[in-house]
């Protein structure tokens, strides 16, 4: 958890200095006042990841040359600075040379937002990102192999775009893809097996019905990735892109044995999206023995009271929660959150609201 957060030239904030109690805070205000940007800054500080962009440069306040975020997640003083010279990372007064070394002892995050519905309805890429975000928080091997796989895939796809890709070069990249893709496949299979019962329990509790949810990992290759690549060589050359491997894996979601994207009702799909994120939080807590920080972006106002209460019941009481909302009326009906500190945001300025 975090007790202080400081921003410099981050999104709409020239500067910001927030003190937050262990329970967390509710951030309220009209649209476009900077609420989500604060959650985004926390996600970057803890995991070097923004759910909204892959390009760090877009996070710097317009007209500034870079941004800074500082805070103390889990009592470790951390700093993330980005400028034209690149990314500068520090933990406990020590510079960290790489993202990997910064993340090694980094904290844990669950991000929940309205866009989570895309996990159920959207393309497979969102479900792969969901698995990667959890896997990368739990395992250095996952993080390293997913990153090396991505780099080698980009290089192989560039080669395949050429008129006559050289076999030796293709084979060299495929060696890397096989080595790291096999690690990612093994860890994803384990991850899905661990998440499945947790998500099923959350689905049952939030819906209040017997709504059996199952998660299955569907790899986009046979068990032997090298063999699958060999078999796909002619097709890949024709299509000029890599078509087998973890970048095409699927996470199959079923309710009552039927594909959720096609057969589940909108309400069931919304519950399922919540269940996936709650399962993530539970798994992180189980594996690390301490709960993650929950960043809840504008979801409470949209939930009916029974789903809201079921969601609250599932969030660990001792976890820090950062909640954004445009209106506070629902808060009075949610006893667990009534005591949280409240801040009102107005064009990048923050005011305390008495409870
Ligand atoms: N790099 C940037 N520099 C300056 N301002 C930015 C930058 N990126 C985004 N903004 C602006 O920051 C403001 C706050 O955005 P943010 O998404 O945090 O608002 P919000 O309060 O969460 O809104 P909503 O309730 O609509 O989700 C917006 O006006 C946005 O246009």
From TrEMBL:
Highest taxon of source: Bacteria
Keyword DNA repair: yes
Protein's GO biological process: DNA replication; DNA synthesis involved in DNA repair; double-strand break repair; SOS response
InterPro entries: DNA-binding_RecF, DNA-binding_RecF_CS, P-loop_NTPase, RecF_2
GO cellular component labels: cytoplasm
Residues holding ATP: 29-36
A GO MF term: ATP binding
Keywords of this entry: ATP-binding, Cytoplasm, DNA damage, DNA repair, DNA replication, DNA-binding, Nucleotide-binding, SOS response
Keyword rRNA-binding in annotation: no
Predominant place of localization: cytoplasm
Compartmental location: Cytoplasm
Family under the similarity heading: Belongs to the RecF family.
UniProt function note: The RecF protein is involved in DNA metabolism; it is required for DNA replication and normal SOS inducibility. RecF binds preferentially to single-stranded, linear DNA. It also seems to bind ATP.
Cross-referenced NCBIfam families: recf
Official protein name in the record: DNA replication and repair protein RecF
Phylogenetic classification of the source organism: Bacteria, Pseudomonadati, Verrucomicrobiota, Verrucomicrobiia, Verrucomicrobiales
Encoding gene (name): recF
């Amino acid at each position: 958890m975090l007790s202080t957060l400081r921003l410099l030239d981050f999104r709409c904030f020239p500067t910001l200095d927030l003190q937050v109690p262990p329970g967390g805070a509710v951030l309220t205000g009209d649209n476009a006042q900077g609420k989500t940007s604060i959650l985004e800054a926390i996600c970057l500080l803890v995991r070097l990841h923004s759910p909204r962009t892959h390009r760090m440069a877009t996070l710097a306040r317009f007209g500034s040359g870079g941004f800074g975020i500082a805070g103390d997640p889990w009592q470790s003083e951390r700093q993330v600075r980005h400028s034209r010279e690149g990314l500068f990372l520090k933990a406990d007064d020590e510079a960290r040379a790489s993202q990997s070394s910064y993340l090694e002892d980094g904290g844990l995050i669950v991000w929940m937002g309205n866009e989570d519905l895309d996990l159920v309805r959207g393309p497979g890429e969102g479900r792969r990102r969901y698995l990667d975000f959890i896997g990368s928080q739990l395992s250095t091997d996952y993080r390293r192999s997913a990153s090396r796989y991505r780099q080698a895939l980009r290089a192989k796809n560039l080669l395949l775009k050429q008129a006559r890709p050289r076999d030796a070069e293709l084979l060299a990249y495929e060696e890397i893809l096989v080595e790291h893709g096999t690690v990612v496949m093994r860890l994803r299979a384990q991850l899905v097996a661990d998440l499945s019962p947790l998500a099923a329990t959350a689905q049952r509790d939030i819906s209040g019905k017997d709504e059996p949810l199952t998660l299955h990992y569907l790899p986009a290759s046979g068990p032997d990735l090298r063999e699958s690549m060999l078999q796909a060589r002619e097709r890949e050359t024709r299509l000029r892109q890599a078509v087998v491997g973890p970048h095409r894996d699927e996470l199959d979601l079923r309710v009552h044995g039927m594909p959720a994207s096609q057969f589940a009702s909108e309400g069931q799909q919304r519950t399922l999206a919540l269940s996936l994120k709650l399962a993530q939080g539970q798994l992180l807590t189980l594996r690390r023995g301490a709960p993650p920080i929950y960043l809840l972006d504008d979801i409470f106002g949209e939930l009916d009271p029974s789903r809201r209460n079921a969601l609250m019941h599932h969030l660990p009481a001792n976890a820090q929660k950062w909640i954004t909302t445009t209106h506070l009326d629902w808060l009075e009906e949610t006893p667990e959150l009534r005591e949280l500190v409240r801040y009102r945001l107005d064009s990048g300025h923050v005011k305390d609201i008495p409870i």
